[in-house]
Amino acid sequence: IEHHGHLARLARLQALLGDSGRAQSLVAEALSLATPAEYTAQVVAELAGALDDRMQLRLSSARDRLERRARDPRLETVPMRVQADLAAELGMVWLELEDLPAAGRELARCRDLYSRAQVEVSIPMTACMVGNARLDLREGRPSDAEELLLPLAASWERVNREGTGRGEVLFWLARAEAA
User: Fold this and answer.
1) What is the mean pLDDT of each run of 10 residues along the chain (179 residues)?
2) How far apart are CA 11 and CA 99, in angstroms?
3) Which of 99, 98, 17, 100 is nearest to 51 (CA)?
4) What distance in Å separates the CA atoms of residue 93 and residue 106, rounded to the nearest whole number?
């Protein structure tokens, strides 16, 4: 399983670097190595592929692969943090597709799952918190968006000032403050 996890992390990194071909190749390799019993590894690999799809604006592909996993009853066997990551990524895809009700459902789900898993606001929650803040802004609640993003911005400041995720958080925080 550890090798699959390494491949999925590499795929995620390649997606963030914009190397879609390499990202999708790593996802395919991770999925081919994962046995049916290694469902969490499959979900983590699919998440990397969906992130790459979203970054490359292949939104229907991202939605389809995430929806397929979200509807699978085995998802309940996956750690809550991974379930939350899936809901966050799916929420971001729905936001990009302009389906605010679907985005709202998934983004509320990721917040609930992170809360139940007792995950503090931190860098791994970036997609969930940014997605929720973007939804708050779309629905005319800039102070709610700001409240979500301030602790996340502080986490990025402490841990990785140069991270690209920090720029995304600061961008949406500026939008919230300007509203």
Assistant:
1) 80 94 96 92 96 97 97 96 96 97 97 92 94 96 96 94 90 95
2) 27
3) 17
4) 10
